[in-house]
Amino acid sequence: MSKFNFWNWYAKWYDRFEGQRANRDIPLIKELAQFSLEDKVLDLGGGTGRVSEKIKDLVDEVIVADTSFGMLKEAAKKGLKTFSFAVLPLSFPDETFDKILLIKALHHFSYPEEYLKETYRMLKRGGALIIEDPDYDRWLIKISLTLVEKFLDPNVRGYTKSQIKNLLERSSFKNINIQRWRLGYFVKAVK
Ligand SMILES: C[S@@+](CC[C@H](N)C(=O)[O-])C[C@H]1O[C@@H](n2cnc3c(N)ncnc32)[C@H](O)[C@@H]1O
């Protein structure tokens, strides 16, 4: 029996319900990533391409990678390059990308450390990983993730700022910079 994937079901409504509110993060993503026209960017857990759509003209190439076929279908409708996968490792060679984005996605992944190690492998030397995630140090987030989101997506698991820093250090990232943003945080880490 095939496993229910919440994101396949939600894909058609995602941009309409989340887009406008979520898009407040775009200026900060651009500021942290400092995109250049030569950049190859992987938007991992990039879903409908909400972020990729806003940065595609600033870089050489952006690829939206996701495990949800439904979400990627919406990204493809926007003319974005998509990459569908079910398990790690991803089939990109070592040191392929200048920037990797993990926006509002890591807390949905079942194997966070494996994913971070994989992003490290795929980043070029000096390349940057940008993460946006809910801040599990905050009670409101603890309640919302455990009581609401977990019912919709059983993989959901929040990380405090020190947990995310530890995970990144264990994956060999350097210059880990974490800043609070609304009810979450942004992280920039360098290979
Ligand atoms: C909240 S959405 C965020 C989408 C997009 N990054 C954004 O900010 O609009 C979370 C995304 O993570 C994806 N996802 C969940 N588990 C995943 C996994 N193990 N690997 C890759 N993507 C995954 C979901 O399919 C969904 O598209």
List the helices and strands and how they pair.
Elements: H1 6-22, H2 26-33, E1 40-44, H3 50-55, E2 61-66, H4 69-77, E3 81-84, E4 97-103, H5 112-122, E5 123-134, H6 139-152, H7 161-170, E6 174-181, E7 184-190
Helix pairs in contact: 1-4
3D architecture notes:
- The protein has 191 residues and is an alpha/beta fold.
- The protein has a single domain, classed as Rossmann fold.
- It has a seven-stranded mixed sheet, sandwiched between helices.
- Helix 1 packs across helix 4.
- 36% of the residues are buried.
- The site of S-adenosylmethionine has 16 residues, from helix 1 and helix 3.
- S-adenosylmethionine binds next to helix 1 and helix 3.
Give the tags:
single chain; 191 residues; alpha/beta; Rossmann fold; 7 strands; binds S-adenosylmethionine
Summarize this entry quickly.
With 191 residues, the chain is an alpha/beta fold. The structure holds S-adenosylmethionine (SAM).
